[in-house]
Every structure is written in C-alpha cells, then in structure tokens.
Amino acid sequence: MIRKVLATLGVAGTALLGVVAPATAQTQAAPDCQYTGGYGTIVKTAPVTALTGGTRVATVELCRDSAYNYWAFAIYSSPMTASEYAQAYLQTYRDGSWVSDVTCDDKAGGGNGHVAYTQTRCWTAKVNGVSGHYTFRARSDKFSSHTNNLLASGSTVTAR
User: Fold this and answer.
1) Predicted pLDDT of residue 24
2) Which pLDDT does position 131 carry in this prediction?
3) Which end of the chain has fewer surrounding CB within 10 Å, N or C?
4) Residue 2 banded pLDDT, cuts 50, 70, 90
C-alpha cells in the first residue's frame, strides 16, 4: 500500500514538474531593447564606463523594430542615487553627417524620461531609418545631479 502511494506521488510530482515551463531566451533577454509596449532587436551594444577607474556601470544599446525605427536604450547595473542621473541619446547621421540627437526626455516622441533616482533604465524616442542614407549611434552618460559633472559615458559604433 505504501509503495502504491509513493508511486502515485512520484508520477504526480513528475507531471507537475512537466507543467512548469523553463525560461526562454526571450524571457531571459527581456531587459534588452525595451520600449513602451514591447522589445526590439539589438543592433549594437557598448559598455558605459566610469571616467574614474573604468568600471562598467551600464550597457547602452542601439535598437531597431521590424519597421526600421531606431532608438537608444540604456540599462544601468544599479539604481541611481539621490545625487545621480543618466541620459541616453540616439544620434542620427545622414550620409555620414550628424543631423540630430533625441533623448529619453523626449516623452512626446515616446521616450520614458531620463534615469532618475532609484531607476536603472531609459529609452529614447524612435527615429525612422527606412532610408539607407541614415545611420545611428546610441550613447549614454551618467552625471552628478549636484555638479552636472560627467561620471560615466559610453557609445556604440555608428551602425544601421
């Protein structure tokens, strides 16, 4: 009788374990290329490093969606303190010449605001890049909110 109970519990336990789905690559990569309502594809990434000591403090990503809209996404390793903030920039070039920058603070265009106290990430507004004349670079800078001194910086290579 005890064997039957143990065997039944073993089969039930195995069945329950089979129901729990393992994490997929998409789930594990969810923080990358975040945007309002979803995620994009990473085009390029680069470290954001402290100016003093060279410690990696974040990653900046150049992202693209299926409609060839580009944006910059920055994710910091730890939340901003009360005396820090960070910004990401999408730098747009046409035929190799700089055209404009958009930042996370471009909320009307879809940015979510700079990385503020207790936060770790931000994304810029999207810029359409269907035309082959455009290339993009993602950059992120971390600042002291008291002095506005640059604390860390990093940027991707210019890419499409």
Assistant:
1) 32
2) 83
3) N
4) low
Tell me the backbone φ, ψ of residue 76, rounded to 5 degrees.
-95, 150
Strand, helix or coil for residue 53: coil
| Average pLDDT across the chain, whole number | 85
**Interatomic CA distance for residues 71 and 42, integer angstroms:** 10
Strand 38-39 and strand 84-94: the pairing is: unpaired
Domain residue extents for the chain = 28-155
CB 151 within 8 A of CB 51: yes
Tell me, rounded to whole angstroms, the distance of Cα 1 from its chain centroid: 57
Can you read off the two tokens belonging to residue 75? Answer: 């994710």
| DSSP letters for 91-147 | EEEETTEEEEEEETT-GGGT----B-BT--EEEPPPEE--STTEEEEEEEEEEETTT
Short-list 32, 50, 51, CA closest to 41:
32
Rounded Cα distance between 112 and 67, Å, is: 20
Which of these CATH numbers, 2.60.40, 1.10.3470, 3.90.1520, 3.10.20, describes 28-155? 2.60.40
The pLDDT, as a whole number, for residue 13 is 42
pLDDT computed for residue 37 by the predictor = 81
- Candidates 120, 156, 114, 152; CA nearest to 136 is 156
